[in-house]
Design goal:
With 200 residues, this protein is an all-alpha fold. The chain has one domain (24-199): RNA polymerase sigma factor, region 2, helix turn helix motif (Rna Polymerase Sigma Factor, Chain: A). The protein has helices at 24-31, 35-57, 61-78, 88-107, 126-144, 148-158, 164-171, 175-193.
């Protein structure tokens, strides 16, 4: 299974700008072993999983691709455990969170800033592109260095655009806890990135 990431497609479903999702028939077909349905599931969610892995581990494209592959191997072997008691994306995000935490426990390190890669950014001038890329690198590195309990609410809120309720369901906590952790995460990032204020 080769990971090729592109911008995640969107459709009009939940909310004004929800990301694309599959319907229950595709999931049911996956549970019956339908390879085409499994391919559809992979193509729909691979970029979102990849994006979370990049920000969570502060790693290289190779590391993020490896995490993405691990997630989908687990997903395909465990999809029969999904009973529809929550949104499928909630179930998937829990799998992503747990896989990233397992990987972090194994490595116990962060990749140096110079090794972090981000998608290409278009701009009107080479200087503006360079500045934006440097800022993105530093923000990504700062997020990856947050404690997991602060990092995950930040990622799920601002990378995946989940609501407080959805984040609470993924992380197994209350909305109040999500709000508290987001607040603490904002403050921690502000401390780490205050020196960039003049460049923004």
């Amino acid at each position: 299974m080769m990971i090729e990431h592109t911008a995640a497609p969107r459709e009009q479903s939940r909310g004004n700008d929800s990301k694309e999702s599959v319907d229950w028939q595709v999931i049911a077909a996956c549970q019956l072993g339908d390879r085409d349905a499994m391919h559809t599931l992979f193509e729909t969610y691979k970029d979102r999983v990849y994006s979370i892995a990049m920000y969570s581990l502060g790693g290289t494209e190779t590391m993020a691709a490896d995490i993405t592959q691990q997630v989908f191997v687990k997903l395909m072997t465990r999809i029969n455990q999904f009973r529809g008691q929550s949104e499928f994306t909630t179930w998937l995000y829990r799998l992503v969170v747990n896989t990233c935490l397992d990987e972090q426990r194994k490595t116990r390190r962060f990749v140096p800033l110079a090794d972090v890669s981000i998608p290409a950014i278009s701009s009107q001038s080479p200087r503006a592109e360079y500045i934006r890329k440097e800022l993105s690198l530093r923000v990504q590195a700062a997020v990856s260095q947050l404690k997991p309990k602060l990092r995950w609410p930040i990622l799920l809120r601002y990378v995946e655009d989940l609501s407080y309720e959805e984040i609470a369901n993924v992380l197994g906590c209350s909305k109040g806890t999500v709000a508290s952790r987001l607040n603490r995460g904002h403050k921690a990032l502000a401390r780490k990135l205050h020196h960039l204020r003049d460049q923004v």
